[in-house]
Amino acid sequence: MIVIISEQVVENEIETMRQLLQHDILLHIRRPFISPSEFESFTKELGTEYLDRLVVHQQHALAVKVGISRLHFNSSDRKNGLHLKYQETSTCSTSTHSIAEFNSLGAYWSYAFLSPIYPSISKQGYGLGNAVLKDLPQRTNHSCKLIALGGIHKDIIQEALDAGADDVAMLGSIWQAKDPVSYLESCLSKVEL
Fold first, then answer.
1. Phi, psi of 11 (to 5 degrees)
2. pLDDT < 50 regions, the chain
3. pLDDT digit string (tens) for 131-165?
4. Cβ atoms of 121 and 176 closer than 8 Å
5. Whole-angstrom Cα distance, residue 7 to residue 24?
6. Is 87 helix (H, G, I), strand (E, B) or coil?
7. What was the pLDDT predicted at 130?
8. Do strands 26-29 and 145-149 pair parallel, antiparallel, or not at all (unpaired)?
9. Cβ-contact 133, 163 below 8 angstroms
């Protein structure tokens, strides 16, 4: 399971992230406007014990420098080839927004988000008319894991997996929960292994 951090700083987020990372998850660090110095402070505060389970969306060169080997590239960065200098030494993931885009990915991508699977929880209105759950049977790319993103909450995780997703990623349902850690635990308990 994957958890994506909120774009905005949330109360007690470092401690919450540490508690989330005590479970079998990857944590995506997505802060579009983070500066290099803020990124360094953020990763130092989080600690080095979880570096192998952090995935960074921005500040890729700095992430590699501090020992993070998992890098995520949005579709625009991927189309511009920003991943090329990292694909041999880092585990790379990307984002897609249609099954055709997902199917076109090369084998060097470890996994890719496909969104919006359902209407988004964190981005109000996103995915209302273009959810892609119905398109999962058209998947032809099996060299890259398909991660369902968008509107994922504990009551529909298994539905997304049964429809053909290899795993799920959550943002809004985790960070809007009163207790994100307990919510994650309830999500993990719902998944049929």
1. -60, 135
2. 193
3. 789 999 999 999 999 999 998 999 999 999 999 99
4. yes
5. 22
6. coil
7. 61
8. unpaired
9. yes
Encode 104-124: b = buried (16+ Cβ within 10 Å), e = exposed. Answer: ebeeebbbbbbbbbbbbbbee
Tokens 């850690």, residue located: 181
Buried b / exposed e along 170-183 (16+ C-beta atoms within 10 A):
bbbbbbebeebbeb
How many angstroms separate the CA atoms of 114 and 123, rounded?
A: 15
Residue whose token pair is 């998992």 = 70
Distances from the Cα of 119 to the Cα of 98, 128, 149, 177, angstroms: 14, 5, 10, 17
pLDDT of residue 126: 56
Measured CA to CA, the distance from residue 50 to residue 146 in angstroms comes to 23
Instruction: Compute the chain's Rg from CA coordinates.
Output: 16
pLDDT at 73: 97
pLDDT for res 125: 58
pLDDT given for residue 121 in this prediction: 65
Whether 96 contacts 139, CB under 8 Å: no
Give how far Cα 62 sits from Cα of 48, 166, 191, Å: 14, 30, 35
- Give the per-residue pLDDT at 72: 98
Smallest Cα–Cα separation from 113: which of 147, 142, 141?
147
Whether 131 contacts 150, CB under 8 Å: yes
